[in-house]
Amino acid sequence: MTRMLIVGPQGSGKGTQAKLVSQQLGIVAISTGDIFRANIKGETELGKEAKGYVDAGDLVPDSLTNRLVEDRLSWEDAADGFLLDGYPRNRTQAATLNEILDRLGVELDAVLELTADTDELTQRLKHRAETEGRDDDADETVIRRRLELFENETRPMIDEYNTRGLVKQVDGLGSVDEVNARIMEALKS
User: Fold this and answer.
1) Number of folded domains in the chain?
2) Radius of gyration in angstroms for the set of CA atoms belonging to the chain, rounded to a whole number
């Protein structure tokens, strides 16, 4: 069984790699971003609330995200392992995740961190906005704000996981196959 997180700045390839790695390891990939986007598109109450934050380049509040993740981790398909993409994103959420995992009687096995240059990420996100119609990636000011939030909010959490010996850092630049090969090698070590 493998229980892991995939972290990195927006545009580093987390979603793409999460799908590949989950298939290769036979575990479910759980993306909070996909869940939020589906709710926004479906104009649910949660989606309407989340849209205001996303459109401003801000993060959806922990209280909404924590409930969503706890519910999702209790599903049967997550019992044999999971790969969380997009959560936790700060130290407070990490503490809540620890509590959730304690209640479930499980622990994290690894935290996979994808790294990439800020300018490269900005170009990737702008391209994604054009090709995938992702409005949250269209504005460079919003993109740079999200990358700044990652450094201010998520980096301290990654540092904490690193002190626990869980972080496996992988260069997120290159082809999907190249990055995936680096990930699989890092997970073996």
Assistant:
1) 1
2) 16
Contacts for 132 with CB less than 8 Å, ≥ 6 apart? none
Question: Which portions of the chain are predicted below pLDDT 50?
Answer: none
pLDDT at 127: 81
β-partners of residue 81 are 2
CATH number of the domain that residue 147 is part of: 3.40.50.300
Owning domain of residue 167:
2-188
Longest CA–CA separation in the chain, Å: 43
| pLDDT, tens digit, 9 for 90 and up, residues 9-43 | 988 999 899 999 999 999 999 998 777 787 788 89
> How do the residues of the chain divide into helix, strand and coil, expressed in percent and rounded to 5?
60, 15, 25
**Residue positions annotated with a catalytic role:** 14, 89, 128, 134, 146
